[in-house]
Amino acid sequence: MGRSYFVEEAVGQYLSDLSTKLKPYVTGLLIGQCSPQRDYVIWAVRTPPKEEQKEDNTPSKLASIDEEWITTHASQVSRMLPGGLVVLGVFIIASPELSKDSQNALRKLIFSVEKSLTKRRLWKPAEEEISDRAALQICSATKKVVCRTYDVQDPRSSAKPADWKYQSGLSASWLALDCTVNVNIHIPLLATSPNHDLEKNTKNGLNRWSKQIEDSVFLINGQIKDDDTELLEGQKKLRGNTQSSTQFSDVKVLTQLSQGSSRRSTATVQVCSGSINLKGAVKCRAYIHNNKPKVKEAIQALKRDIINTLSDRCEILFEDLIINEGPHKKNFEREYHVLPQRLFVPVAGSSVMLSDYKFGDEADAEIQERFVEMLDQSVQAEDIHIAEEINTVFTSSLDFHAVDICPITDNVDDTQQKQVTKATLLLKLQQNMGVVIAAAVAVFASIFSFNYFSD
To answer: Cα torsion for 176, 364, 317, 370, to the nearest 10°?
Structure first.
């Protein structure tokens, strides 16, 4: 039996509108969420036309589809998705004469898009991860919809049939998990390295940091919950899907100070000639469907958002430097930069918000233009909500002694760092309070018993 895709009704209307406007074919991405029982499609986004195609001169054959352009679009879109949302597949709306070639074109695109997205990830998929991706084919004349899936983990995967079901208000009351993660990452640059490629070194450092996030303890509304319990257990579920409403959960992230003493470790001393420092606070958010979601689904979505948001910001910074100052800026000697801040934008009919990143000198008009180009969504300036008040800074130096290991910015002071540490200790103390009380009771009982029998 194939997978079932529950699709927001607005997606059906969007695809129908595209079929009447664009000829002879149009491609795009399907965005949503995987779950063990079913998949959810909450948005569809057409591939933006290239400059030379904006005069309605789209190539008439599917063989001329620009894979690189589509995969680049998919990478850009994935940055604008909060935790829990992924590119679920691709679609083609084509005229009847192109229908025969559509399925082959879809298969190529699905594997190309997945390969491109996988290269950017700093996390590995779980063993039980859903690896099927949707290939949606729509005939522009008859409006017939054919949905199939391919297993992207298997290069020889053949098409499987899938159900495509529309539903109203599908994501109107999804659940959200919010957290703020304090970042203080120090990445040394080895003196033996002949060329300090800061982009490569930064990615290596983030890779090590991402493993710490994977091993962290997550408190949901102040509690540690078992992975297989329902996220909403003990809470009232919001009902009604006619109006957008979100139920938020506050999450605290406790990173482990060490990896335990079960394995022996050997200290290595290496001569360094420089360092990269990332310091600040990042706002993270994940959304999860409201069909009895498990705690492990929600935590996994949030972990990936934490890792993605910092990695994406560093990528955006390097791209901006290359565009504005040339490729040589990948190897600068001493620099101080503020990473772009995160913002969220609501979407009509859904409780799920889209995400993006903004440099301090960017105008709202630039952000609005990006949403139209990348996601085919009109955004009002008053709906753009900056998520963070504290800037995350990127500092690099090829003179190891010329800059503090943990530089202090105007926005991140010692008092705040002490407050964060104090809050973390209090949370850990709350975790262990039961053990402390139990031990105290046991000691008191033993003393009482000793005195009683002594008398």
So the answer is: 80
| Residue 60's pLDDT band (cuts 50, 70, 90) | low
| CATH class entry, domain 4-167 | alpha beta
Which DSSP state fits 169? T
pLDDT for res 263 = 59
Q: What is the pLDDT of residue 440?
A: 41
Give whole-number Cα distances, 232 to 244, 245, 298, 364, 367, in Å.
18, 15, 11, 37, 35
Name the more confident of 51 and 14. Answer: 14
Please give the C-alpha separations between residue 197 and each of 143, 192, 307, 329, in angstroms, as whole numbers: 51, 13, 21, 9
pLDDT above 70 covers what percent of the chain?
77
Measured CA to CA, the distance from residue 345 to residue 418 in angstroms comes to 32
For residues 34 and 129, give the distance between their C-alpha atoms in angstroms, rounded to a whole number. 9
Helix (H, G, I), strand (E, B) or coil at 266: coil
Write phi, then psi, for 334 (nearest 5 degrees). Answer: -150, 115
Across 167-181, 268-282, 435-449, the highest mean pLDDT is recorded for 167-181
The total number of residues written for the chain in this structure: 455
Question: From CA 23, how far away is CA 118, in angstroms rounded?
Answer: 31
Cα distance between residue 338 and residue 280, in whole Å:
10
The candidate with the shortest Cα–Cα distance to 347, out of 30, 5, 29, 80, is 80
- The two counts, helices (H) then strands (E), for the chain are 7, 17
Domain ranges of the chain: 4-167, 174-230+246-256+271-394
For residue 205, pLDDT beyond 90: yes
Q: In whole angstroms, what separates CA 303 from the centre of its chain?
A: 8
Task: Tell me the two tokens of residue 324.
Answer: 């504005």
pLDDT exceeds 70 at position 312: yes
Give the strands of the sheet with 39-46, arranged side by side.
160-161, 145-151, 132-139, 86-94, 25-34, 39-46, 4-8, 163-167
How crowded is residue 344: how many other Cβ atoms within 10 Å of its Cβ?
A: 17
As to burial, measured by CB atoms within 10 angstroms (0-12 exposed, 13-18 middle, 19+ buried), residue 259 is: exposed
Which of 14-28, 202-216, 289-303, 348-362 is the least confident region? 14-28
Distance set, CA 436 to CA 119, 429, 433 (Å): 46, 9, 5
pLDDT digits (tens, 9 = 90+) for 413-452: 444 344 433 333 334 434 444 433 444 434 333 433 333 3
